[in-house]
Amino acid sequence: MRFTNPILPGFHPDPSICRVGEDYYLVTSSFEWFPGVPIFHSKDLVHWRQIGHVLDRASQLPLDGVRPSGGIYAPTLRHHNGLFYMITTLIDGLMESGNFIVTATDPAGPWSEPYWLPETEGFDPSLFFDDDGRAWVHGTRPARQQQYEGHTEIWLRELDLDGVKLVGEEHVLWDGAVKGAVWAEGPHIYKVDGRYHLLVSEGGTAHDHAISVARADHVTGPYTGSSRNPILTHRNLGRDHPIVGTGHGDLVQTPAGDWWMVLLAMRPYGGYHYNLGRETFLTRVHWEDGWPVAEPVRPEGEAPDLPACRWPAPPACDNFDTLRLLPQWNHLRTPREPYWTLTERPGFLRLRGRPESITERANPTLIARRQEHVHFAVHTAMEFVPEGRERAGLALVQNDDFHILLVMTASGLTVIRRENGVDHTLVQADVAPGRLWLGVEAHGQEYQMLYGIRPGEWRKLGEPVDGRVLSTTMAGGFIGAYIGVYLSGEGDPTGNVADFDWFEYLPLPEH
After folding, report:
1. Active-site residue list
2. For the chain, which domains are there?
3. What residues does the Beta-xylosidase C-terminal Concanavalin A-like domain cover (predicted)?
C-alpha cells in the first residue's frame, strides 16, 4: 500500500505521537484557536480520524486577548502506566501563561484541569519516561549565555508524577548542532539500545527548518551530536521544491520494530506562499551506526507495514443536525458565552450577533474550519436581514489584519479584502436580504466569490480575489487559513441572528 503526504492536510503543525499497543495517537498545535490541541487516532499511521480536542473547556484554555500566533505551542503526547499525558505551553495569555500538563485515561477525554509548572520557562516542553520509573521534563528557552539572537538551549529536570511538579537539579543538554544555529527547539528524548537520543529542531520554522540529533549514555548528558547532522532538512532543495520547511519531528516505533517520524512541513503554491500553514507529514526512519537516519519527505511513498485501517469518510456537508458542533469547527479564542446554537432552530446553525469583529483580538461570532486543500469549494445557505452596521456571511481568516469577507450588509452583498489592517471593498451587489446562497471556489491563489438567490443558480461576484493575503508569507505568524461563518455588529450592540442551513467543503481537482 502507498500513502500520500501530508497525512493531516491544512493547519496541523508541531505533531507529537505515541503508540499504545496497536493504536497511535497524535496531537498538533492550535495557537489562538479553541478548542485547543486536536487529537487524532490511527492504526496504520496513514489514515487518521479526529477523536476530539485535549483542551475543550474554557477553564483549561484561557485564550482571552491572545495575539495572533500566540496561544498553544507544540504539545507533546505520551502514555505511561495507563495514563495519557499532554504537556504544552500557553504563550502570551493574559490570565495564565507558561508550561502545563493535563492527563486522561481515555485520549478522547475528558482531560484534567492543567497542572501548571511555574518553575519552568521557555516553550516546547516534552516528557520522557525512563525504564527505571523516573520521569523527566525537557524544553526550550533562551540560552543563559546568549551569543546571538535566536540562541536557545534545551533544559531538563525530573518530574514528580505524584505531585506533578519538577524536582531536583536542572541540566542543560544542548543548544543545536550547526554552528550559530537559531531556535534549537521542539526537543524529544528516546531511549534506544541503552542510549538516550535527543531529537531537536533548529534553523527556524520557515525554509531553513531542520532536525538534528545528539545522544548520551545518561539522560542528563553529556550529549554528543551526530556527525551527519542535520539528519533531515529540505533547505538544500530550494524554495521551489513541493515540500519545504521540514522539521519539528517526533519518532514512533511499530510493534514489528520499524521506525517512523511525524513532522511538520509546508507546501508553497502561487509563489512562495503558504495558505495551508504547516501540515503534518510522515517519513520512514532507519538506524545506522547507532544513529537515526530520516528519509526525505516525499509527496507519496510506501506505507508502513501495518494492516490498513480506513475510517469512514466524514460527510462533505454539515447539515447542522447534531446536538454539538462537529470536531472540525473552531472558535477564535476562548468563547465565554454561547453565541451559537444548534437547537434553537433545529437543522440550522444559529449565530447570535455581538459587537466583536475579527479585526479585534477578541472572541468574535465566528465558527470556522481549516482550509485543507490548494483547490477547494465552500458553499452555504444563510438567512439574515442586516440592520445598521451588521454584517454576516463567509469569512476566510489568516489573522485580524489579513482576511477576506463575503458578507451581507445594509449596502448589499459585499466582498472585503483586508491587508495590513486596512479594509478594501472590492465589489458590492444589490441583493435582497433574506435567504441567500454563498460560496467560494479557490483554484490556487484565485478565490472566486459566488452567490445565489435561488438554489443551484450560482453567480460570480466580481473578479477572483488574490488569496495571498491568507498566506503567512504576507501575514506572518504560524497559522494556516480558516474559512467559516461569521456575524458582527462591527462595534455596535446587536440582538440579531444569522441562520445557516448547511455548510459544505469540497476539495477540487487540480485542473
Report:
1. 14, 185
2. 2-302 (2.115.10.20), 317-507 (2.60.120.200)
3. 317-505
